[in-house]
Amino acid sequence: MALTFSFESPLNYVILAHSSQGDPSPHYAVCSTSLFTKRTTTFSAISPPSVIAKIEWNSFSPDEITMDGRTRLLDEVIEKGGAFGRTIRKFTLPDGAKYKWKSCSSQSLVLLDTYGTTIARSHRTKCGSFWGVKRDMTLVIESPGLAFVDLIVLSFIVAEHTHRQRQEAARRRRRRGQGSIVMANTAAASF
To answer: Where in this chain does the record put each DUF6593 domain (predicted)?
Structure first.
């Protein structure tokens, strides 16, 4: 199953499913609103219309997720991976099966089961020259994952958001580090 995410923000998407004829049709919607120190992301099915989950990204308290009328800490449902490893997020199905989203590159994530089998993979590519033209992101779900597509897509949204936060934090650290080096070199040259 191939799903295409129509916007560049991980928290605001229309997700299109592709039929066997290749015709895309809206399948899910992801919409986020912000209010002071909290952002709420709603993940919904389009047909039939239903809210699958709501995530509250809190600035000063733990993030929460509401599914099936039950509110829990986000990290209890879709756990964080290691701070420095390639595992971004992981989750366990009610039957005990464990899955983890890993970073393959700066442009893609892969969902693996405990045996290392690929269940889903994202592709975020650019085409063209060095800067390229941004293209929509695609999430391909293999047949073993078709039994829990909603949870795969929900966990992917969280993992992609976490992945982008990590990338942005790394860019900020590099900029601060480069700024310090430039300042140190300038100071050394002036003596």
So the answer is: 10-165
